[in-house]
Each structure stands twice: as structure tokens, then as C-alpha cells.
Amino acid sequence: MSFHRVGFVRSPGAPLRTLLMLGILSLTPLKALAQDSDIHSLDQLSELPRLADARQAGRAINRAYPRSLQRQGIGGRVQLRFVVDADGRVDGSTVEVVAASVEELGEAAKAAAINLRFVPGKIDGSPVKTMVLFPISFVAGRP
């Protein structure tokens, strides 16, 4: 399995900063998804998917950051895996927490993911479904 970073965004927001990085998995380890021949791997794409609007993504993630954790100054990192459809929307049924430093942040990241929009990956100019790995860092702001 290989990983390729295709974007990085820092969303300015007081009292919170959210860091986003977008990556693509070239092989899908999930058995159910591997059977879906409509989901393409990195090596098949002529154009990689990317966030359609980084500010919108930052706002969606900021809204999902649990206020109780923000007040306590608790941040953390979450790795999500999901399919971006050919229309650039996240397929909510595929959103999976791969790793989370704080369980509550994992659930928050999943909730935010369904609101993210992408420019889909393409093969020869045609948009296709693509599996992505999407790390999110929740960083509590300093007073």
C-alpha cells in the first residue's frame, strides 16, 4: 500500500486551528470495497482528488470539534478513510476511523467528513470514485 499527499490546508480560526492533509491510498485493504470495481486506485488516476474548498472544509471540521474538548485544551489527530464519489461527495457509508488519538475526536471527524466536498479524481478527464486517506489534526487554540 502506498500513500501520496496531495494537499495541505491550515484553517485560521480562534480559538482553534484545524490542520488538514489529504492523501490517496493506492491499494484498498478493505475487502468489501476491494470488490467494488468502480473504486479506483492512485495508479489508475490521471488527476488526483483534492478539496474543492479548503475554507469550507476547515469550517466543517471546526464546527465538529467537540466544545468540551476545546475548553479543556484537548486536541489530537484522526486518520479517516473514505470514498470520494465521482460527483466529489464523500460516500458516508464508507467513512471509517483508521486511528484517533482521542475517541471523541474520531467521531467528530466522521461527522465532519460527510460535509466535505472534493474535486474528484479523474481518469482521462472523467471523474471516478477514489479511496482517500484523510488525516485531521484538531489543535486547541491558546488564550
What is the number of independent domains? 1
Q: Helix count, per DSSP?
A: 4
| CATH architecture assignment name | 2-Layer Sandwich
String of helices and strands = EEHEEHHEEHEEEE
Could you give the count of β-strands?
10
Class from secondary-structure proportions:
alpha+beta
Supply the CATH class: Alpha Beta
Largest sheet: 6 strands, mixed
Principal-axes shape call: elongated
CA gyration radius, whole angstroms: 15 Å
Q: The CATH topology is what?
A: TolA/TonB C-terminal domain
Q: What is the mean predicted local confidence, pLDDT?
A: 79
Strand fraction: 35-45%
The CATH superfamily appears as TonB
Folded structure, characterized:
The protein is of the alpha+beta class and 143 residues long. The protein has one domain: 2-Layer Sandwich (TolA/TonB C-terminal domain), CATH 3.30.2420.10. Strand 1 and strand 2 form a beta hairpin. Helix content is 22%, strand content 38%. The N and C termini lie far apart (41 Å). Helix 2 (54-64) crosses helix 4. The chain contains four helices and ten strands; from the N terminus they run ββαββααββαββββ. Strands 1, 2, 3, 5, 6 and 10 form a six-stranded mixed β-sheet that branches. It has a two-stranded antiparallel sheet with strand order 4-7. The model is unreliable at 1-35 (pLDDT under 50). The chain has helices spanning 31-34, 54-64, 67-71, 103-113, and strands at residues 3-11, 16-25, 39-40, 50-51, 76-84, 96-100, 118-119, 122-123, 126-127, 129-140. It is elongated and about 50 Å long.
